[in-house]
């Protein structure tokens, strides 16, 4: 059986970043398990028309791998996927594509993680879970959905075989993917109806192509990219005040969004239906300059209520209105607060990560969990942001993980008290933020109402707090025994499993 020091699960930004950080630290005994046929994670899976990032391109990149060739201020999805494919260069010997992790079990006797995959099993001293939060599309429970006679898809599983030309299309949802896909669909379809459970707050999208002179400067002067990244980072940090509950900052953010709405929608009744009834920032604030014009032009019809049921080719809204449709597109997000992989991870005493997270995801330093030794979760509990770059947060966590691995000479397990106290602190801090001001968002755990996806502070503070590993909250369990076991294991010939 194959044994490695570190197994990485996932090959998106977090997984590829982890692989690079391990190599940079001198670690070469690791594999990256990826269930798909290529790397890229979210940016591989989402290929719907109009898909793009809402964080500036140069900031939404690895700090150690700048890309002088970004074409726009905000990169399109395929360009980001290409960037990640490039980031996989040099990692080929470590990548295991088409290899799904099917079970992950902590072996107390041998002090290793036993990793079951679709292509054979292996063991690892440590595991980095880099599976991401936006992996499993969420399809709402709609009565009669099985009777629909047309084509149906989720934005994250776009069906390129379905031609929308001349079709009657219904888009369910008004989140980040919806505001991007609706104008694109409207350009092809005969009619588009958007089912809106709640209106989103939207601000202008200041996108443009980089000029030839700018691209030349990025290519010839690496400091130009760093200066731009720094400026973009602090512009993002400045937006945190509106999330933290600052009344003046919230009022300014609200005014910007309302002015954008009023400037693009002249019809008073339509404008009222597109005006959110919750505080700005409570749900994800979206950026778009062409979503409102699609409604204003008459190309898109707004149904200001949820999709309640489907009767063969007819969609029935909660308002009672009925719509004929040939295609239904679900822009309804992901199973983000209850991660599907959690049920596959079995820690000390056979307790699964899903059981440990029964009241919502928790982790010390947003990275480690009591009862799951030598396990590091990147882009997991309270590690997301609502105002800045996720890649910055990922790199911060990876600094922490590499520091932990340098201390790993046995079994590192964070104490229950440390995880509990960290969680309680974040809960206290989250209470005054706009995210807990009363709306129903994907940032919250539906069972407990806790803010489980976002860090309730600035990105800079997260790095200051969690960017350096501190062994104090950890204990090395049975330190001598694993050393002996590793010596025994090293003396055994464990050949590569079939298919590796």
Automatic annotation (TrEMBL):
One Pfam family in the UniProt entry: Pyr_redox_3
PANTHER family in alphabetical order: FAD_NAD(P)-BINDING DOMAIN-CONTAINING PROTEIN-RELATED (PTHR42877:SF4), L-ORNITHINE N(5)-MONOOXYGENASE-RELATED (PTHR42877)
Identification of the protein by name: Cation diffusion facilitator CzcD-associated flavoprotein CzcO
Native source species: Antiquaquibacter oligotrophicus
């Amino acid at each position: 059986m194959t044994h490695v020091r570190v197994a990485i699960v996932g090959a998106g930004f977090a997984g590829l970043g982890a692989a690079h950080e391990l190599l940079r630290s001198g670690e070469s005994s690791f594999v990256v398990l990826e269930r798909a046929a290529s790397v890229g994670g979210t940016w591989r899976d989402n290929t719907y028309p109009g898909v793009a990032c809402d964080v500036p391109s140069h900031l939404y990149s690895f700090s150690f791998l700048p890309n002088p060739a970004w074409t726009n201020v905000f990169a399109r999805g395929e360009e980001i996927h290409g960037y990640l494919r490039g980031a996989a260069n040099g990692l080929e010997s470590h990548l295991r594509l088409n290899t799904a992790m099917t079970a992950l079990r902590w072996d107390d006797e041998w002090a290793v993680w036993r990793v079951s995959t679709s292509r054979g099993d292996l063991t690892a001293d440590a595991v980095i879970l880099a599976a991401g939060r936006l992996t499993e599309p969420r399809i709402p429970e709609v009565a009669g959905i099985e009777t629909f006679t047309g084509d149906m898809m989720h934005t994250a599983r776009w069906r390129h075989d379905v031609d929308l030309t001349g079709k009657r299309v219904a888009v369910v949802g008004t989140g980040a993917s919806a505001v991007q896909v609706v104008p694109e669909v409207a350009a092809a379809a005969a009619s588009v109806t958007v089912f809106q459970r709640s209106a989103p707050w939207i601000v202008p999208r200041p996108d443009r192509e980089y000029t030839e002179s700018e691209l030349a400067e990025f290519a010839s002067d690496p400091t130009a990219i760093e200066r731009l990244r720094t400026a973009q980072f602090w512009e993002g940090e400045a937006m945190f005040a509106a999330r933290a509950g600052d009344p003046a900052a919230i009022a300014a953010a609200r005014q910007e969004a309302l002015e954008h709405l009023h400037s693009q929608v002249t019809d008073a009744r339509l404008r009222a239906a597109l005006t959110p009834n919750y505080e700005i920032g409570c749900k994800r604030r979206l950026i778009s300059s062409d979503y409102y014009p699609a409604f204003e032009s008459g190309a898109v019809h707004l149904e200001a209520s949820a999709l309640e049921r489907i009767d063969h080719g007819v969609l029935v809204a909660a308002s009672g209105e009925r719509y004929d449709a040939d295609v239904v597109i679900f822009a309804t997000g992901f199973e983000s607060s209850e991660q599907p992989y959690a049920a596959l991870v079995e820690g000390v005493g056979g307790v699964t990560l899903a059981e440990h997270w029964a009241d919502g995801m928790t982790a010390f330093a947003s990275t480690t969990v009591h009862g799951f030794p030598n396990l590091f979760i990147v882009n997991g509990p309270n590690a997301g942001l609502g105002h800045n770059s996720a890649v910055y947060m990922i790199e911060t966590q990876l600094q922490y993980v590499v520091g932990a691995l340098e201390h790993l000479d046995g079994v590192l397990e964070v104490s229950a008290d440390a995880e509990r106290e960290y969680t309680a602190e974040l809960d206290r801090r989250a209470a005054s933020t706009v995210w807990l001001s009363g709306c129903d968002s994907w940032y919250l755990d539906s069972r407990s109402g806790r803010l489980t996806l976002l860090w309730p502070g600035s990105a800079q503070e997260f790095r200051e707090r969690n960017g350096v590993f501190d062994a104090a909250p950890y204990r090395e369990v049975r330190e001598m025994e694993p050393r002996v076991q590793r010596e025994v294991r090293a003396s055994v010939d464990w050949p590569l499993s079939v298919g590796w």
